[in-house]
Amino acid sequence: MSIAVPRETQSPRGFKARLAGALRRKSKTQPEIGVNIRPVGSGSSSTASNSSRRPSRLTLHDEYEDSEASTLVESRRPDMTALLHGLSNNNDSLEELNEALGRADIHRKDGEPEVLLDAEGNPIPQEVIDASMRRIDSLSPELWKYASTFMSPHDAASLVMANKIFLNKLGKEPLETLNEPDNFQHKTLLLSHYDYLYPLHLLCPQCAIFHRRTRRGDEKWKAEYTLNPLFNCPKTRDTVLPRTRVVHGRYLPFHFAQLVLRARKFGDPYGIPIDRLSRRINCADSKWNHTLRFHIFKGHLLMRSVSSCIADPNLTATAERMLLYDRMHFTPYFSVCAHWRDGDLMKLTKCALSHIPRPPQSVRAQLKQGPKVSLAAMNPNFIVRGCEQCRPMHRCPECPSEYLIEVRMVEDKSPDAHFRFRHAIVVTRWADLGDGKSPYREEWAACNDELPEGERTVCGIFEAGVGNEVPGSRVLNLNPKGQKKGEEGHNWY
């Protein structure tokens, strides 16, 4: 069975051909026509033979009918803009081209020898490969079995499945070890390495089986995910599917992180574009508005959530709780990680609410309250900068999440608004959701309080990737005391 190779996953041979065609000197007498041929199964040879018998001059009508990828060059000098765009089809980045070079052996044709590449993407000579295999074969099976004891179960199983030499040295014991219930997570991680073989299927982390996608290419992220499964699995409605909380009432299933990262790594047939995850959500239970955006950096899915809500000045403690918390589960309306109760997140949010200035008060209104008149109350500063505690950015020490709390001036579009522009509390969260290989990986598990993960800079990477400005503020620890009381501590409420 032959699979059509997308442009972003073409082999290095296709990339070199495009590079040579783009740099080839054009003729000055007559225009040339360059046709990009996609290697689709056995039909590529017939397409190439037909293109070689075409005449040198074609009309615009014939050229349009023959191929949609044909390009008619009319100028003597090559267009530098077209040259740069020709080197990166479909706006491929340098990172994606390097991934295509590293996946050259995945999309090779049947019968072609396997191509192994080094770290720089250059093919390894066959003599070097044969010498390495001889060195591996020279060691005794007992030595290899002793070395495998220092590996994790999925690493040892990957070594066995690398080639026949390791299979003969180690035997089938590493593969049989993965079937034990305690090694279920390692089994799921091993199967995730074979995603490139199944574009029509999706790995189920609940049963470690590749299920066929029932809505291939039409998967949509909905709030009622259990009523709209992506594949038929008996455990879809019987178990808790791996997911992470995004905002109030919205959870991101792990399967959508799989689809987005598979599509970027292997091509469009393997998943869905990342733009399908972006959302603008108006909370039905409150006045909060949420904006979600995602970005991929070095194979990791990054998320940014911007939540805002108009707030009045001088709120009481009860009014602050009504504004920030859901009355059913007592969780914040905005996006938070699983460690929000341990640190000072809610304390900092309430501190930012205390900096919202009052509306301007006239001299008559001040005299009604007392004999003193304040000029600052007549002309308050509506630009809220915060204090030294709530102004800086804060980073969670247990997971890759960062928070920025601000007070901005927004337009109040409600019909009963007395003032057109009012202050709103804005909470922005940046999070790293992992590489999508398994829900037991460090980043995804850390955001759900299942595994601790070290600190990292997520905000700068995300904003630099989407082309926005990085907030110029310090980054402080969200839990400087290191206390982990959870619901037993009352400072969060």
From TrEMBL:
Residues 1-72 are annotated as: Disordered. Residues 42-53 have a biased composition (Low complexity). It comes from Aulographum hederae CBS 113979. This is Uncharacterized protein.
